[in-house]
Amino acid sequence: MRKPRLWDVKDVPRLTRLVGRPKPTPALLADTVRPSAEEKRIYRLPVFTAPFCQALLQELEHFEQSDMPKGRPNTMNNYGVLLHELGLDEPLVTPLRERFLQPLMALLYPDCGGGWLDSHRAFVVKYAPGQDRELGCHYDNAELTINVALGKAFTGGALYFGGLFQAPSALARPLEVAHVVGQGILHRGGQLHGARPLGTGERWNLVIWLRASAVRNRLCPMCCRTPDLVDDEGFGDGFTREEPTTVDLCVLT
Ligand SMILES: O=C(O)CCC(=O)C(=O)O
Ligand SMILES: [Fe+2]
């Protein structure tokens, strides 16, 4: 029998039904993914169980209290944890991306590299009194993003979404999306968004910036130019010098 790992993807509940299905059927998806705002292409889906969220929060707090060296999640958030610094990239985030998110994203966002995800930047953002309380409007360095609420108990902090940042008046009619612990919000990285101020309590969210080198190698999603690459470690910012191998398609489907 395989020894269970501390962080096993079996903790991802209903999505496990997608395992082994290279192409989830629309009927299966309809039961798994609820469109939160069809025209904005924002979706909500269950990702983690409540006990898993609690265990992860505990681990994050232990790490926060330790004197291990820590980087910042991104240029906007001052508090939180990079998942690779916790050693959770390989056992948790990579299988989540490859086995669960990839087939889903391929169906929901085929035009944004959903079928070509090959790296990620995963971090937890933290909002608390006396620390960060809100997040300004921005777009992500990602083709696609999943944002999962982990807890704890809090009020406020809803996400708001506009259109793609390149569009004129992209923030004209923002859509507010409340957090539900254990559930994830899917959106396009280039979609303008931010977080309303925290009311009370502490909010921790797992954010995974999903990247498709096949898309970003052609056009950097941040500067909208052909990327001028420099070497980096690990996934870097998700660009590659070599194109990922092509996928053959059946002409009859
Ligand atoms: O506060 C949040 O949950 C949103 C975080 C976010 O959009 C980001 O870090 O890119
Ligand atoms: Fe973001």
Automatic annotation (TrEMBL):
Keywords: Dioxygenase, Iron, Metal-binding, Oxidoreductase, Vitamin C. It comes from the Eukaryota. Its cofactor is L-ascorbate. Pfam families: OGFOD2-like. The keyword Oxidoreductase applies. The keyword Iron applies. Residues 118-212 form the Fe2OG dioxygenase domain. GO terms for molecular function: dioxygenase activity; iron ion binding; L-ascorbic acid binding; oxidoreductase activity, acting on paired donors, with incorporation or reduction of molecular oxygen. This is 2-oxoglutarate and iron-dependent oxygenase domain-containing protein 2 isoform X3. It comes from Pteropus vampyrus (Large flying fox). The lineage of its organism: Eukaryota, Metazoa, Chordata, Craniata, Vertebrata.
